[in-house]
Structures are given as C-alpha cells and as structure tokens.
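Minutes, project check-in
Item: structure for the 296-residue chain
Input as provided by the requester:
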Amino acid sequence: MKILHIFLVSLFVCSSTYAQKIYFTDAANRWRVVKDDWGTTTIIGYTFEDTIARGGKKYQLLKSNNGDSVLVRTDSSRQKVYAKVYKGSIQSAGQIFLDSNEHLLYDFTLKVGDTFAYKTFRHYVTNIDSVQIDGVWHKVFNFRDTGSHGWAPYTVIEGIGHTQGLLYPLGPMDFEGSLVLSCFYRNLVKPAMSKKINQFDNNMSCYLNIDAEKVRDDHNKVYPQPATTHANIKLPEAIKNGTLYLYNYVGQTLHIEAIQGETQIKLDAPATPGLYYYRITDNNTRRTWQGKLLFE
C-alpha cells in the first residue's frame, strides 16, 4: 500500500511538471509567423530576450527577426497581457501601435458578448471554445468587429495568442490572411493540440525555423528561377540514399521523393504558383541542403 501511495504521488508530480498551463509571457515560448505580403513571403520568429523595467513595471522584451521590439507583461493573475513599443516603430504591423503607451493586448478572462477595444476599434466575443494543449485545457476566443473597420472574424488561443499574428489585436486587419501562425514552441518542443484551430494545429513541419532571408542554397544551383513548368536543383555531389521534401510557405509538406545517386533533381511545378521551400537530406550522412523555389 505504501509503494502504491509513493507511485501515485510520483505520478502526480510528473503530471504537474509536464502538463502545465501555457502563459503568454513564459520565457521559453517561441513563435513562427508566416507573412505573405503580395507574393513576398517571410517568416517572422518571436522570442523573449530580456526583462526590462519601465515605470515601476517589469516587462519581457519580445523581439523578432524583422526588427520589431515589443515590451509585454501580464497582470498578477497572468490572464491579461499588456504591450508597448520598446523602441522605434513596429515595422511589420503598420498601424498597430499608434503611440508609445501601454495597451491591453490580450484578455483571457473575457466572456461571450464582452467587448475588446483599442482606439476606434471594438470587437466582441462571439463564442468561446476550448482545446487541449499537451493535455491541459486552454480557452479559444472567437471575435467579430462591432463596426465597419474591415476586420474579419479572428481567433485567439489562451496563452499562445492570435492565430494570424501576435500583435494583431491592436490594429486593423487590412489584408485578411496576410499573417499566419505556423508554429509554437515551448522549451524548444511543439506542444500537441487536440484539434485544429482555424488553420493552426502546430503539426506543420516547422523545419522553417530560421529566418526566411537566411535560408541557404548551400552551393545548390536552382534553375530556371522563377520557373513555370518545372525547376531543376543541381547538387554539389551525388546522393546515394536521400529524400527530397517540398513545402509550401506555411511549412506543410506537399511532396516527398526518394533520391538514389542523383546529382540533379527535376521538380514539376505545383498546381498553385508561389513561393515554395525544398529540403534534401542524405539519409546516410544526415547532411541537409535547403532553399527556395519560385513558380509563376
């Protein structure tokens, strides 16, 4: 009986350690957001880098690879998230921050029918759903615009944020779908979700964990670029046993192909023109080549 009691206590401790609620300002959180700006695709990575004091309050410095620097903090309940510009302007968000004051970014205590307001923008909660993240229930808030500011309905996941850009609750969504949350990491691991929320399920390949501008060809030659019917990838050496992966701009796997002794690979154009990413892995040496492909 004593052994059983110790086992149950150990099980409880382990469950408490590995199945915890996600809070937006947890220092180990990482986000990957895909931005599609009229055919130009970039991947924005958000990480926490420092703790900074401002006006007697402690903020987490949230930085991205596109130059944005935002200070965020939560209240004592950790259910309300506030944000303000750290320095400079928010490059990727346009009109999101109209001043240097602190503004409410997320409120995870809202109920159905409650409103969320910033400047002249006002939204209300249409319904609240839920999703299990690593076995722990989190709320899912669905919003609509109360006026005519061009907002489409949008969704916020408790602890993770907006599914179309972390900072978007504070500004107008002029171009629906221009930002897509593709990956969320906690302690460098993607937590499992019990179901998809809009387009986000955290099950995309997420191999695009580097800046889009820093994706290397690694001495590969890709031609023609842009391509219309097909593209050729010329490798610096023959791969005896390899695999080719083709991804779309949000990291979904579109095509997998075995490679055996080739030094050049021909890829037919996908049905939809646009920007794609490829990754080639040598299964024997584990070496990897990756790059971008543009089809018109």
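Outcome recorded: The helical segments are 2-18.
No further action items on this chain.
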